[in-house]
Amino acid sequence: MAKIPFKVSARTARLIGRENIASSKGAIIELVKNAYDADSPICIVYFLTDSLYIIDAGEGMTQDIIANHWMTIGTNNKETDYFTKSGRVKAGAKGIGRFALDKLGSKCEMITKFNPSIHKDFDTEGKSTNYKAYHWNVDWDDFEGEFKTIDKVEADLIGYEELNFIEYIKDNINNQKIHEILNSNDLTSGTALQISNLRDNWEDYFIEQLYSDLEVLIPPKEQGNFKLYLFSESDIDKYGEVLGSVCDDYDYKLIAKADENQNVSIKIFRNEYDLETINPKLFEYELFKEAPYTKSDFQRGYWEINTSFAKLLPGYKNVDKDNILSQIGTFDFTFYFMKRTYSTPDLEKFFYNKFNSNERKDWLNKFGGIKIFRDEFRVRPYGEVKDSAFDWLRLGARKATSPAPTSHPSGSWKVEPDNVAGAINITRVSNLSFQDKSSREGLQENEIFRVFQNIILKIISKFEEDRAKIARQMWLFYDNVNIGAKNRKQADVIAKKILEEDFNNSSRTNNNTHGGDSEKVILAKSLKDKEEEIEKLEDEQKMLRGMASSGIVVASFAHELGNLKDILNGRVDDLKELLSEKAPESLFSDIPDFLNPYVLLEEMKAQDNKLQNWLNFSLASARKDKRKRKKIYIKNYLTSIKSSWNTILMNRFISLSIECVSIDEIDMRVFEIDLDSIFNNLIVNSIDSFMLQKNNSNRKIEIKQSDNDKEIIFDYFDNGVGLSEDITNHQDIFEPLYTTKRNRHTGEEIGTGLGMWLVRTIMKEYDGSVKLLYPKSGGFGIRLSFIKKYKKGQI
């Protein structure tokens, strides 16, 4: 049997290379990375009228390296050999950087002189040579032509036994500034690329854009180790060394470091507040009595917290079947928040430091966005201004779903993408799962990357929570000192009117003057408390409005859904009866189940039963009588709950037991729908908990009802996985929008975060209490206590 090899046309190889380099700016960046990987201390990019030079002072290339690495398409030597001789982690990986030359121009010449202390030169047959440098020349148009395969395209290579690298460049480039840079660096080796017949029109506008891109190519801390220059023949004084900008004018700064054990240390710096203008009485408020909000914490300027991936994404570990968290690796994250402007009233309310708005806007317009750096080079296009990937973390979408101001009582303020900057540092060594896209524009957005995005968002949320808490207390303080004074004046007018009407004589007036003052203060405080209560109720109303919409939809289609339920009741049996007349079931006895229509109909019937049970459950919840306050007999009610859930729980191998230990028949005057909301949410959570367990045996839910002289008590237990160990404060589960239900592929929250909040809210409405229980055998437990208000046996 003959074996024949595959062949690749030269033109196809060229097209593949072009597709792997997304833009001309990206092509130049790839060549700058090559200079970095060559251990060069400098890289010079120089635009002439009809050509482009890229020069480095790296280790240079021997004939063997040129033939077996430089001219080998897709070589993986950088993937297997991560480090340079000086210890840098190589920035390139895919071995297609040389196609950047084709992207930029149709012709390329290269002069390279290798460092003899690092490399020994051998020819393609492995024989030692006396050459110290090489001239390489290629015409990319040679790749064109019918029936031409890649192995038929050749480049010219000439060896030199002696070559003064600096003098060669000076002879070919007449630019005094470049000469000075060359003279200040001991260039005994290096590589110079001259690309001609440029494919793009590099007018100054585009060179300026490139310069801006290069400014954020390398983190500022790396500038001393690797210097990058850009010059243009058309305006030799306009450009020069490319320097990144260090951000020192910020409101908040966050530094996070993740280690190999998935632990994360977070340090948050507060630079937003002018401590000299803060009223000392503010620190008498409850929030500021404990760390990290004490006066000394503010004076120190920062606070720290230690957490982990699992705690940042509580509940995700339960669904992390592929050990995604362990594959993320170490990283550093520096984040800056910077208001673009402020108003004079806000300056007074929140004790802001003053700043130059125009300077901040200019800086953010140029350097804003959260960028990713891998081994000291930026991974484009994340955080790139005016690019669709500028807001790759979707901070704007988060803000749109939670547009609350900073001082909102809910504490749900979210930061806007236009007010942030930052850098995430990863490395090819520790973050093996973060691979380049083939286009070199970004990382492959797999499950690991999406979970990583959510971890970054949760780290940012630590800053958001801190700022929101402080802003809320500052607003309340301002309200108390200023708006409260206004309310007291209004109360003073009302109080005087009351006093004038009620005081019958002057002696009575004199005796009650001070009492009247205290009454006025009480009235003003009462007005302020009512305003806050109204604000909280308005927030709850918004959430409940959204939930009510779902209920309205079910109620609106109740009649149609009821008819559908009746249709589901016997349609499969009718089909089987019709089918048996033409094709009896015995005809299919030897047919595999997946082709047997009677087996398929039985499966359909099982699905119909599930749908019917769901409809029964939904329609029962929407009944009008459940929305009226009436006497509910507890034992009967709990029995009906068990009946409603019976089929759904049986399908999941879950048992539900009810125990009423009260001697007398207990009844409650309540809205039945409130009890439904409590127990349905608890049962749904239990089912989700059981689904996280590896086995499906011995799943139990228990509801125990008891009472005493003052209370009617419901103890609810399940033997599921219990509360996630990654929840730092278990009381957080009662906060609105808090959830541990997460998408296993992305780590995103998929629960509503309203179930346990509803339980607590309903209990508050009945002046009841909620207490978490911790069964010795594990699982989840909660005690619901209703106060007996009216008479024995009723609330």
Q: Kindly, what is the distance between the CA atoms of the first and last residues, rounded to a whole number of angstroms? A: 90 Å
Radius of gyration: 36 Å
Shape: flat
- The strand line-up of the biggest sheet is 5-4-3-6-2-1-7
Q: Helix content range of the residues, please?
A: 25-40%
Strands, helices and their partners?
Blueprint: H1 10-20, H2 24-37, E1 42-47, E2 51-56, H3 63-70, H4 77-80, H5 99-104, E3 105-113, E4 133-139, E5 156-160, H6 165-172, H7 176-184, E6 190-198, H8 204-215, E7 227-232, E8 252-258, E9 263-270, H9 295-300, E10 302-308, H10 309-312, H11 324-328, E11 331-337, H12 344-350, H13 357-367, E12 369-374, E13 377-379, H14 395-401, E14 420-426, H15 447-502, H16 506-511, H17 513-556, H18 558-582, H19 597-621, E15 629-633, H20 634-651, E16 654-660, E17 667-671, H21 672-691, E18 699-707, E19 711-718, H22 755-765, E20 769-773, E21 780-787
Parallel strand pairs: 1-7, 12-14, 16-18
Antiparallel strand pairs: 1-2, 2-6, 3-4, 3-6, 4-5, 8-9, 8-11, 9-10, 11-14, 12-13, 15-17, 18-19, 19-21, 20-21
